[in-house]
Every structure is written in structure tokens, then in C-alpha cells.
Amino acid sequence: MPPEQAGARGFLPSLVKDPKHGHLPILLLALTVVTGLVDAVSILRLGRVFVANMTGNVVFVGFAAAGAPGFSLVASLVALAGFLLGATGGGRLIRRDLGRARLLAVATFVEFVLVSAALGIAASTHFPAPLATISSMAGLLALAMGLQNATARHLAVPDLTTTVLTMALTGVAADSRVRSDHPRGRRVALVLAMFAGALVGALLVIHVHVVAALGIAAGLLLLVATIAVRTT
């Protein structure tokens, strides 16, 4: 069998039960869906703020500082600070040396609490919301995403950062073929997971309510935490 076909056929099983990383790949893809859901909420209802993608958020801070309409400087700065604080907390959690599965379980449970708190605020809010409400939600969601990003970085499953697609897309385009040791399919799966989260999140925010999008995100986080606990 050609190497390309062997790599492609081994891709799906490696997502569910990777020989080196166990169940981590599929769980990190679920967290990537969460990222899409959460950023759909923040972009569409929290004043064009990224809470997971800090590259985009820093650009938005620049736009807001220049006085571009439709961007909230305060909410963007709160999101940036929240993300850094969440990443700092993730670093402290990592230093406790819990083991990979237990680390993911604890981190995603804390994320679940933070996203649920933002959901609680959204449930009692009419959008467009006051700046204080927007900033509070952005801060909570950015805390969760900073923690998630630090955890995924430490777990170091190749191509599964859960929040950043630039290098994944570069790899998809630059690699000449699928290889079983470093499959292009994993990168494509990351992009599709983010797209799916953003699509579902946007549909729910536009046609249902912010609570629906955050509810699915919270449910996925709880599911990931539960599965991670059972694999420890």
C-alpha cells in the first residue's frame, strides 16, 4: 500500500486512540470546537473581541485605539488581560505535575466553570449589552481560553493547538503528501473543528441566543473533563 494511503487510513484511528498520545487528539479537537463557539459569541455579541485568538485581539486593540467604529478598546484589553491571567494559571497548574490526562481534566473543568459563569451573565442580559457586561463576559471567556491554550501547549500533541490555525494551514499547503508519522489530516481536522464551532456558534447566536452557544461550549468542556478523568 502506498505511504499516502496508509497514512490516510491510519488517521481516524489515531485521532481516537493515538499510540503515543492516547485519547488526547480527539479531546483537543473537541476543545477546538469550543474555541469556535466561544469566539463566535465574542465577535458577534461582545463588541468584536477575540477571546481565544490573541493575534486577532491585538489587531483589534490597534483598531479600537485608532478610533475605528464598532470595536471596544476596553473589552479587548480586558480579554487580553484575562487571557494572560488564564495562561498564567495554566502554567501554575502545569507545574503541579498532575500527569497529562489529569491536567486536561482539571483544566477543562475550570474552563467549564468559567464558561458557565459567562453563560449565567448572558442568561440575564439583553444584547446589545452594556460595556460592563460585555467586559465581564469577555474577561471570563478569555480566562478560560488562556488556560486552555497553556494546557494544550504543554500537552504538545502535534498540530493540535486548539486556538491557532495559521501554522496548521501553512502545513496543509506546504506539505507535499500525507505521512503516517505526521499526517496532514490532523491539521485539516483542526481547521474543520474550528470552522464547525464557529459556524454552529454563529447560527445559534444569530438565530437563537448567546446562551445556546455557550451552553454547547460548556457541555463539551464537561464531556472532555469527564473522559479525561476516566483515562487517568
Task: Describe it.
- By secondary structure, the chain is mainly α.
- It has a single domain, classed as Growth Hormone, Chain: A, CATH 1.20.1250.
- 74% of the residues lie in helices and 0% in strands.
- It contains ten helices and no strands.
- The longest helix has 25 residues.
- It is globular, with a radius of gyration of 18 Å.
- The N terminus is likely disordered.
Question: How do you describe this structure in short?
Answer:
This protein has 232 residues and is an all-alpha fold.
Helix share of residues?
A: over 70%
Poorly predicted spans: 1-8
Number of domain units: 1
Terminal CA distance reads 36 Å
Shape-level CATH architecture: Up-down Bundle
Gyration radius, rounded: 18 Å
Structural class: mainly alpha
Give the ordered list of helices and strands.
HHHHHHHHHH
Return the CATH class.
Mainly Alpha
Strand-residue fraction?
A: under 5%
Please give the number of β-strands: 0
- On the 0 to 100 scale, the average pLDDT is 87
By CATH, the topology is Growth Hormone, Chain: A
| Main β-sheet description | none
Our count of helices gives 10
